[in-house]
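Person: I keep going back and forth on a fold encoding question. Show me how you would write down a chain together with its backbone fold. Please set it down just below, with no commentary around it:
Helper:
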Amino acid sequence: MLKRYHANADGATFEILPAIDLLGGEVVRLRRGAFDQATTFSSDPVAVAQEFVEAGARWLHVVDLDGARVGEPKQADVLERIVGAVGDRARVEIAGGLRSKESVAKGLTGGASRVVLGTVALRDPTLVGELVERYGPDAVAIAIDIRDGLAVGEGWREGAPGRRAEDVIVELASVGARWFEVTAIERDGLLEGPDLPLLRRIVALDAGQIIASGGISSIDDLEAVRDAGSAGAIVGRAIYEGRIDLIEAISALAFDRE
């Protein structure tokens, strides 16, 4: 039996992005984006990053939760240490508190391969367009946190105002955004499976590359979001709790057996 390399429709390989969420310098995972429901998994984020890369991860998704909460980066030193430790073997995307041209510039010049914009993207599409024009569409991703069908800024905060997710994605694609990281907030950190109908609706817009997040708990879930048309998936708690073996997952998603 031969292995057939699996790629998405545009030829890009499906990527698994292990998540490293930082709160007070520790690696945590939240439930439904709530800061008061954080579980700590490690006090050494650099060691976690190295372990993921040694398992074969080619991208890491690193989130400054403190920065997200206050609106400006707060753990730049940790992010720089992670990039310094694994940047020659994997790419690192950073998120959390990136709401200005200055913070984006510091993140990218500090070694990140991609920045993820959340709240500011919903508030200021013009800024998104300027950043994409300056750094290129592959250096800027947009976090689309969805609750009840609405894309919301400050997704951890109940009652945060939002707009129809599809409208937001189409608008941001019109200013040059290519990468969208879609999180079903109601499922985030609960390991109850991805919101496949939501992903299919977003993919059907044909507005860019979609990275899935929220609820993924198994290799079957990863295969499902891939088959729904996603270009990748962010996985956190399922790896930390041992439900997904990263080495096995990367192997399974990179190849189909025939």
